[in-house]
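Example record

The entry below shows one chain as it appears in the dataset: sequence first, then structure tokens.
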Amino acid sequence: MNYRTLGRTGLQVGEIGLGTEHVVREDQGMVNNVAAMAIEAGMNYFDFFWPQRDFRTKMGTALKGKRNDILLAGHLGVMEKNGQYSKTRDVATCEDDFHDFLRRFDTDHVDIMMLHNVDEMADLEEVLYGKFMELAARLKGEGKARYLGFSSHEPLIAQRAAQSGLVDVIMFSMNPAFDALGNMFPDNVEQESQKRMHELTRTDSQSVLAQRKDFYAVCEQEDIGLVAMKPFAGGWLLSTRKLKHPPTSTQCLEFLLDQKVVSTVVPGAKNTDELADVLRYFEASAQQRDYSTILAMNDWDLGKSCMYCNHCLPCPVQINIGETIRLLDQGLQKLTGEVKDAYRKLEVKAGECISCGACVKRCPFGIDPMQRMYDAKALFRM
């Protein structure tokens, strides 16, 4: 493992850290194995944003006795609502959830307290300059967080945070499709996302790609530690579902680590096989790391692609939207018995969707999860 400095925090972080959103559904044995394998490989930056109590308990168990081996990033602004992830800015709820995090990880502090998932200007004002920040500053003052971080998918929002002087670390969606070709927001995004883009865009002619580059320049100027999430675009970049000749995980990681502003990349891994694929990066030859061919590809199309991040939750009828869409995408490629069985095991099926539209407004990638529920109901007939 090679290590980099996490901006002005001065912390030394492995070039590749661990995102944990995908291992949330696994049993205790697999959670233990993923955590142990990551630490043995030298990964020391672990990001946790899922608020589910059972997952925190499993991961806390997996990390028992290993707290000093890792830098723990926990998120302020999440809650569990009827068993599902939900974003919140309610101060009392946030404080209760944060203390639950500390208890379940058997620690008295996090190394990075992430101000969670800020993608709109109004939310930015509330998070950085309101009672939410007062809570974050108090918890930090009490020694329960060493540094403040900030997570976002929007370059202009993230840039404002970087310039605020209030945060030291920013977690941001980065990968070759988003950053080489500016394909984060395709032209055919849904109306709500188009409205948000219009509100965020400084000039009609400036591209999202240029905004992203401006944000990275500010991070360098302000010595912000940049944590790259979504390095494989929710798995799309490694799949033939969207690309005829998908890049390898090694090529995607090399592309991001070539961006010197990046301190660490945090791919998710739901099992040891996926983590082993990520770790092959360190054994790869220069030829295997070479990403020049993928930059010349002309079939990048992530339009209407779900990243399975579940930021669209909570669902009022308890549909696991990210997992439902993941199975839908697999089924549209090849409707195997295994995919059908996995769908049947979902506690709530897509057919229960009540078309409230809340998920559409929350999606940071401009897709229409409600339409995908209709599609899943038609494909799986339930």
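Notes for this example: The chain has 17 helices and twelve strands. The two ends are 47 Å apart (CA to CA).
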